[in-house]
């Protein structure tokens, strides 16, 4: 890999069952801006957060989504949620925002995009979010349901 024969180096690293070697090769590839190959080797070495970060740079949301169950970093879940929201996949965005602990964003999507006020109310009651309560109150005010709106003001 250091000598410039990236394809041969990646193939050798992939064939060998050595996670440390794969991780080191991925580091080298990343420094050479070979993000696709680096992401694959990071994934093969169990470095899921690093792999997901590179897949995010590559905007490969399918691969990011497949790695999410192995990732605890809220930052990655948040980036994935924003991407899914942008493309209109609101249920996936809600799940990712929830994993990122962004409950106000979950409430916003449930109210404005998924028309699921019952779920939003349950989340706000469980988390006692002031901002979420304001969103629910405004939602009910727009429906002229002032009795429900008052509960959240």
From TrEMBL:
GO cellular component, one term: cilium
One GO biological process term: cilium assembly
Superkingdom classification of source: Eukaryota
Name of the protein in question: WD repeat-containing protein 19-like
Organism: Hirondellea gigas
Lineage of the species this protein comes from: Eukaryota, Metazoa, Ecdysozoa, Arthropoda, Crustacea
